[in-house]
Each structure stands twice: as C-alpha cells, then as structure tokens.
Fold this protein.
Amino acid sequence: MRNLAIAALPVLALAACSGGSESLQPGQWDMTFAVTDVSGEGVTEAMRDEIAGELDRELAMESTCISEAQAAAPDESLVLNSEVISECNIGESVFENGTIDIAGTCGDGGDGGEIAVTGTYSATGIDAEMTATIRDGGQEFSFAGNITGERTGDCPG
C-alpha cells in the first residue's frame, strides 16, 4: 500500500496561476493539507488509513512567507512542493478573482491519474478541495483532501 500512496504524489499537483483583482496579502501564511476521504474497489478501512496517513505526511504543508510578487500572481508553489508539481501536466488553471479551478493529469501509460482542485481565496484565506483518481499497477483508488491557508501576520525578519 505504501507504493500506492507514494505513486499518488505526482497526481497532487496544482497549476500555474495568473492572479486577478482579488489579491492575496503578502506576509506569513499557515498552509495545511488534510486527506478527507480515500475510496476504491478492494480498499479496506486499514488501507484507507494507511494511504491517508502517507499522503498527509508526504503533502504536509508549512508556514510560508508570501512575497508581494507571489501575492499579486499566486501559483502552485504556494500549495505544493516542486517535485509534485513537476510530474503533472495541467490542462486548465484558474487562480484569479477569488476563484481556484484547476484540472490536470499526472503520470504516463497505465499508471497516473487525474486531479481537480476547486475553491476560493480572499486577501487572508484559501479554502479549496482537491480530488484525485490514481491508477497504479492495475489498481485504482480516489481520494479527496482539503487545502487551507490563513495569513497570520508579517513575514519574520
């Protein structure tokens, strides 16, 4: 099951974003990702817990300092690490005017999957839901997770 969870990581990319009239405030932001559901044929409760735990660990987010430039034109680096982002091909990407709507595919051949991220943002908050379907070695499962962000103040130093 660990291989399934690790194989899911490339599926979890978000797209480059283009900014808009609703701008994030620069400063210190606390970002979180939490798996809310794992499902699939033959996926037992124990497997769900294992997959969710692995994804939560691998995709854990930390506090980050958002610069003025990043706040004016937010992109995927605000919510996912570069390794995950580099392994996906984003077909649609909207991160503007308070709306987040992103879709893409990851992986190659029979393994990989699809991702969708929808949500909203304001000057001081991000609230989005990620859904993904993953195919790995003939098995398929889906998961959902919440991405949240909150501005907590000015950047240190």
